Amino acid sequence: MVFKSPLSANLLDDLQTALAHGNVARRVDMLRQVTDLFIDHAAEYSAAQIAVFDDVFECLIEHLESHTKILLAQRLGLASSAPPRVVRSLAFDDLVEVAAPLLSQSSQLDENALIENARTKSQGHLMAISTRKTLSGAVTEILVERGNDAVVMSTVNNQGASFSELGYNRLVQRAETSDGIASCVALRPSIPRHHLLKLISRASASVRARMAAANPKLAGEISAAIQKATRQTRSASATLSEEAAISHELVRLLYKDGRLDENEVLKFAINDKFDEANAAIACLAHVPVSVVEAMMIEASNEGILILSKVANFSWPTVKAIIDLRQRLANQPLSENIAERDTYERLRPSTAQQVLRFHRMQQATADTSVA
Question: Residue 135 carries which DSSP code?
Answer without folding.
Answer: B
